[in-house]
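I'd like us to work through together how a protein chain folds, taking it slowly. To get us started, please write out a protein record for me. Label the sequence line and the structure token line clearly, so we can match residues to local backbone shapes. Once you have written the record down, we can walk along the chain together.
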Amino acid sequence: MTPTTVIELGRQAIEVTLMVSAPLFLAALVTGLIISIFQAATQINEMTLSFVPKLVAIFVTLVLAGPWMITLLTDFIRRLFESIPAMIG
């Protein structure tokens, strides 16, 4: 296995990780922004107010994007396992 192969596998792994985590991060970011605007408008400065809506948003996003995320991970792992013989020999 050459250093180029290792770097390419690492790049692909980071790419898949970012693609899988992006929907959850975006849901948390948007929810946090909406809650922050609500808190600023109503002058409610409670730090725990944003926890439950973020949790619900992440859960809903996970339910909606979960099949896509699992498919993406499964395809990557399948390609990785199929390339093992070429890497060894």
Notes: The chain has a mean pLDDT of 92. The two ends are 9 Å apart (CA to CA). Residues 20-88 form one domain.
